[in-house]
Fold these 3 entries.
Entry 1:
Amino acid sequence: MVHAFEMKNRFIAYDSESCALHELDEMAYGVLCKFIAADGQTPDISVFEELASAKNYDLQDLLECRDDFSVLIAQGGLFTPGRDVGIEALYPEAPVIKAMCLHICHDCNLRCTYCFAGTGDFGTGKRSMLDVETGKRAIDFLIASSRGRHHLDVDFFGGEPLMNWPVVVALTEYCEEMSKKTGKEIRLTITTNALLLDAEKSAFINQHMKNCVLSLDGRPEVHDRMRPGIGGKGSYEAVSGRIRAFLDVRNSDESLYHEHYVRGTYTRNNLDFSKDVIHMAEVLGARHISVEPVVAEDGAGYEIRMEDLPQIEKEYEDLAEYILMTRKTNDPVQFFHFIMDMQGGPCVYKRLKGCGVGAEYCAVTPDGDIYPCHQFAGDASFRMGNVRDLDDLLDESGNLLPGKKAEDILNPEVHDKFIERLMPKKEACKTCFARYNCGGGCAANSLHATGSLDGMYEVSCRLAKKRLECSLWLAVAGQDA
């Protein structure tokens, strides 16, 4: 599928099947739009006669441009035929779980208004801490489930994981021990609101963890409005200083891991969220930033509405311009949703699939319950199993019994639902130019917004398309640098 669009005085065409990207002049853009209207077929000459009259173009110039496009199409540079890719092409064998969101605790020291996790207890009314043995069994389950996969990922999550710090340390050491024992590389991430992030914890994270996600919504008034502490007082002052100190060390010492994300949520209270990204970059020193739109029920007051989308789309365009400006310096800022490798990106099969929710990725709660991802935790209808059940499949040495698989402990009625969703099958996705970049959208967001895993959450779709346009614009505009 070919998508043509204009953004900030540039005319751009993108073939989603071949990943071919073209910058056009205004006349060529007009000609290509006629090809798009004709589904990639060469339009009749009368179409170009009308265009010449409407735009005061020379007809001969239009016909020469038409012929150039016809050659490009014949060569496969535009309107590349789509492929009907089945899950068997990506997974000759069954998909395996290779990433885990491990809930270190179901409690939190903030009371964020929009929190999908019910301020830490995930709507259960029970605040709890993961114990070391359950955490170890979760990691054992991940290793056993991953079969031949070498690279595994564990995200220490909450609630607020720093509230259960001794368990974070113990499980980090266990992951490193099991990496040596099994030969697998277990990459660790921790997601924290930074309220308890002191020098000791920062040093440990910097030495042992591949990535650290730090939650902050941006400017002080924006952050404090939605992310107060337990007593209702804003948390920006306490959090921002700790994040700044953490990043100062992580960014300056070459012996440390450098990956980080300062991650925020924007609501309709701050539709000018590009200012929050700039604040994170220039005030806090963040160089890897992600801000996500809130997903909230109608009537919450801060939910994103359809009428907000034009302003949000413009905001993404302005943000792209800022990101481009930083790319021309020695200290560029990376915005998560604008990162796109136009040269060495993944093949079509990997581009098609989404995050792997419930099939390649799972979440484990402090009770050991397994869910498709953190956003389903606490919903009993999506409980997939419990990591403690792995004991029934192991011998005295901790190895799987003959004929047993770790995923035998999973409820197939839930597990299979998500294996089927590894490749987007929604009708609207089949003709969408962004289908290879969003994986059909977030299943949890679709469920919460529409009541169905397969529902079309239009706000999310619109924003995914705009973010891809911004990525493509950056790829084109960046060539001028």
Entry 2:
Amino acid sequence: MEEKESETLRKILKVSADEFLEYGFRGASLRAIVKKAGVTTGAFYGYFKSKEELFDALVKKDSDYLIELYKSVLFDFEKLSFDEQKKKIDNYSKFGLEQMFSYVWDHKESFRLILKSSGGTRYEHYIQALAQLDTDSNRQFNKILESQGIYIKHLDPLVERLLMTGMFTSLFNIIFEDITKEKALWTLNQMHEFFKAGGNCLMKEKQ
């Protein structure tokens, strides 16, 4: 009996993932999902109470993991001494992106749903949430610099927001390209160098 229930659940999840990818969260039809999965409406509601709960089942675990992964990278950076932070900030930025890249690469379908189909769910501003983590960390580092008598130019908030969201959007777009993992990682590193150079230019130390 358990084996049959597990197979039914797998079928519902597979069909619903396809439905969400094709029509988005708002456009996806529970009636269509039930029909394509070959289950009764009663059976479906035995697993999920709503469309929102169904979408959660597909993406929540991976969504939460990636957020916590990036938080841990930022937290480890914040524990460094000031001199170490100055020396290693670019390395930590690259390391964080590579850690995220590896996880997203291995869980593409979850993140494809988040990036392409989550309008109307709590995940629709997922990239902005990642960008805000990075922005908050950068601002905290800038305060530390200033406490040490080092003053840099502050980015306009709109420019800062667009740059940060652009960086994370690029990360996901690279992974969704039809290229090898090696090519994707090389492209990611090129992207990091581009954003690093631009950021350093805009936020150079005041004379």
Entry 3:
Amino acid sequence: MLDDRMNVPPSPAKVRRREATEELYRQFAAPTPSVIEGCPCCIEKRGVDVLLSTPLRALSGLALRPYVFCVFLTFGSTRDFRYLLPRIFEISLVDRRNSNGAEIVLGKLRRAAWRQWPQGERDAITAFVHVWLDQAISEDVSAFMDDSFGWETEGVLCGIARADLPLDPWLARLHEPVAAPILADLKARCPGELSGFWDDAPAGVAELSAFLTA
């Protein structure tokens, strides 16, 4: 399999991302919902209809972003969230400029009671999040000394905590040599300069603080 743009084999990271993405589509394959219910005014203003009239894999980040922000608040249900989940997650990695942050996307899993979903679905999500964290670390390392340095990794870790997953297995990645600058940055910023999204995950903050001060 070749990268069409460069005519070279895709990198291992791209292969893992593709495999994790396809597993999400396989696990969450379902008919298009007939309707997304909720506040009529919000649904109209947010352009929700396009989410059901456009093929799932053709949905853009711009189309999905308002839905992800509002789902479980003013409209949307577990049924339509599950249907859209593979594309929401995929967009989060391939079109971050037009996607919601990891804190928001992964935080929606708690509202959907995802820990009660079938094991195959939960495993697919967990595998994808591993790829997500790998990409975040890689991007942060590439952005070392930039103003945005460290925020991608923190965002994914925060999202993991907001999804009610224990952080310990994921924090272990920060002990790898490549992640040393990110670990130093988090130590310097924790707890006072962390994202406000951590307020919704006090157990995660406690885990992170204990890890950084060990």
